């Protein structure tokens, strides 16, 4: 994700907008961008992740077990309503922090 920070915003969108989920295990770098770009996030339930998602703008997992991440991603793949709900809530959460240029509006 360190590379992700250095990419132009339009390229980030191209990379993320068709993904079903982005996972975060120990670093939250890029989580806000994924949320803003309409990609559900799956993360370990660290204090920072809870604060960023407010527990609703992503799926938080209290385990570091990779099988829990896999189960959650499978759930997102099979439950379009849940995925859409997470995307909408994440969009609401990050909207106040987004500054769009005149070209983007």
Any overview of this molecule?
With 105 residues, the protein is mainly α. It contains six helices and three strands, in the order ααβαβαβαα. It has one domain: Rossmann fold (3-Layer(aba) Sandwich). Strands 1-2-3 form a three-stranded parallel sheet, with helices on both faces. The mean pLDDT is 78.
Whole-number tally of structural domains: 1
In CATH terms, what is the architecture? Answer: 3-Layer(aba) Sandwich
The percent of residues in helical segments reads: 40-55%
From the N-terminal CA to the C-terminal CA, the straight-line distance is: 27 Å
- Overall shape: globular
What is the gyration radius calculated from CA atoms?
13 Å
Low-confidence stretches: none
Short description:
It is built from 6 helices and 3 strands.
Main attributes of the structure:
105 residues; mainly alpha; Rossmann fold; 6 helices; globular
What is the fold's blueprint, element by element?
Layout: H1 2-6, H2 9-16, E1 22-24, H3 31-36, E2 41-44, H4 47-53, E3 59-61, H5 66-78, H6 80-94
Parallel strand pairs: 1-2, 2-3
